[in-house]
Specification:
By secondary structure, the chain is an alpha/beta fold. The protein has 22 helices and 16 strands. Helix 3 packs across helix 4, helix 3 packs across helix 11 and helix 4 packs antiparallel against helix 6.
């Protein structure tokens, strides 16, 4: 098996093993870690079809994390994908009205971020031991709603770690906010920021890039790392569930070996769809990667024009985890379609930072042919939830509804009948008000937890433990700050 090493998309970082890339999160030059070359699946599709989720996870992760021993990796996997998930399947596939919904919300915080953030603390603490790290690891995370709680749940009370989560104070759903601010754990801090997600993300990147601060905290026994999908330890576990989904379809006789599938992903920060792109790259038979945006359609415009432009109105929508104008993980794709030219990638990212836009070359745009982009308006998202419920009784959250609507548009425009997997990224219980009022506007008169009970009656799906436990939980995190105070908040917490 090949030894896979990692380098920065911006070129300055020397090649490092996976464990070092996981520990650092972000490269020293501000770039993202990418594998020197993509590995290739060394098990046949038929072999993968008879594996459970944990076995599939090992077969995928061993390719990317080649400096972890079999024992280390299996320890991380077995502790991550256990009874925290409410189904043995971990990520069940449900066929709904002609497409397969890959339900990624059966973990502790009922969103797809659990799929990677359940294992990241184990990968990180194992990596620290492998590299004889004595410092306490400080996880800095910006969240648009879901990453924050999933990271908090993963790292709470993990020895030799602390975690600080910044979220847009007025830019998450009531349930998302309550999940975060009720988080227990002596090593946790949750901070509401007067700004949007992009402000939070930019603030965290600025802290990472502050060499003097890094040196100062190292002298006090700390080092920063990230739990955002910029961390390769977040991204690789997301590759697993696409491989698993294909294997399950093969096992159930819904595919012939080697038959292509399309994948639809509701997309904000570009990590989840990039994981599907990597799955395709390691040998999974994926045809089109369908990138679904909400009204913040910066990725739709990019895929159609080749110009990435964040100079536009930031829209708060009912799918807040996608309310993003700076899609950080896109940098990894840019690096690849630029022929792995770190200088060109760095120039484009600097243009985004200074001018708020960049434009790729015609030859780079040609390499995006496997991607298709479209978006769903707020009204279309509501219609999608209402329509699928009326037709089938299946209830989707708002993000999955964006994906479903874009899938219908794709079929209408292309007439492509390829079997399709839709990444179902959150439980409808996480966005009860938006979901229930889409089904019937009269529900808007009820409070959020009354709506939880109504959704339970309507969907016949058990109320997740993640919701039950926050009904009466006390608010433990009340801190807020301005964007320019984020660094001081970090310093105060580390005192």
């Amino acid at each position: 098996m090949k030894n896979i090493v990692y380098r920065s998309t911006r070129g300055a970082e020397r090649e490092v093993p996976a464990s070092v890339a996981i520990l650092k999160g972000l490269a020293d030059d501000g770039g993202l870690f990418v594998p020197q070359q993509l590995p290739v699946l060394d098990k046949s599709l038929e072999q993968l079809a008879i594996m459970n989720y944990q076995e599939t996870a090992y077969e995928v992760m061993k390719l990317f994390f080649s400096d972890f021993t079999e024992e280390e990796l299996k320890y991380c996997i077995s502790h991550a994908y256990d009874s925290k998930f409410d189904t043995e399947a971990i990520a069940p596939l449900v066929k709904v009205d002609g497409a397969w919904h890959l339900e990624l919300f059966h973990g502790a915080t009922i969103a797809f971020k659990d799929m990677a953030l359940s294992i990241l603390p184990y990968l990180m603490t194992t990596a620290a031991k492998k590299n004889h790290v004595e410092n306490e690891i400080v996880i800095l995370t910006a969240t648009s709603g879901d990453t924050g709680k999933a990271a908090l749940a993963g790292f709470a009370d993990v020895e030799h770690t602390r975690i600080i989560v910044f979220y847009p104070k007025d830019g998450v759903s009531p349930i998302q906010k309550k999940q975060m601010v009720t988080q227990k754990g002596a090593n946790t801090l949750v901070v509401g920021v007067d700004g949007n997600f992009d402000d939070c993300q930019t603030g965290v990147k600025k802290i990472f890039g502050d060499k003097e601060l890094g040196k100062s905290i190292a002298e006090k026994g700390f080092q920063f790392s990230s739990a955002n999908s910029i961390n390769i330890g977040r991204l690789v576990p997301q590759v697993v569930y696409y491989v698993y989904a294909y294997g399950q379809m093969l096992k159930n006789g819904e595919l012939a070996p080697g038959e292509r599938i399309n994948v639809v992903v509701p997309t904000g920060n570009f990590g989840n769809i990039l994981a599907a792109f990597y799955a395709k790259g390691i040998g999974l038979p994926i045809g089109r990667l369908i990138c679904a945006s909400n009204e913040n359609k910066v990725l739709y415009d990019f895929l159609n024009t080749g110009a990435y432009d964040r100079n536009r109105e930031f829209i708060l929508t009912s799918s807040p985890s996608m309310d993003i104008l700076i899609s950080s993980n896109l940098e990894r794709l840019i690096f690849q379609i630029a022929g792995e030219d770190a200088d060109q990638t760095r120039e484009l990212m600097e243009a985004l930072s200074t001018d708020g836009r960049y434009e790729i070359t015609a030859s780079m745009k040609e390499k995006l042919s496997c991607f298709y982009g479209d978006f769903a308006s707020e009204q279309e998202t509501k219609t999608s939830i209402h329509g699928l419920y009326e037709k089938t009784g299946y209830v989707m959250d708002t993000h999955t509804a964006v994906a479903r609507q874009v899938y219908e548009k794709y079929k209408e425009q292309t007439k492509d009948q390829t079997k399709t997997v839709i990444a179902s990224t959150a439980s409808p219980y996480k966005f009860t008000r938006s979901v229930m009022t889409a089904i019937d506007p009269a529900f808007d008169k009820k409070d959020d937890f009354a709506l939880v009970d109504e959704l339970n009656k309507l969907s016949k799906v058990r109320i997740p433990e993640a919701i039950e436990e926050i009904r009466t939980a006390p608010e433990l995190h009340k801190k807020t700050c301005a964007v320019d105070q984020m660094e001081q908040v970090v310093k105060d917490f580390l005192r």
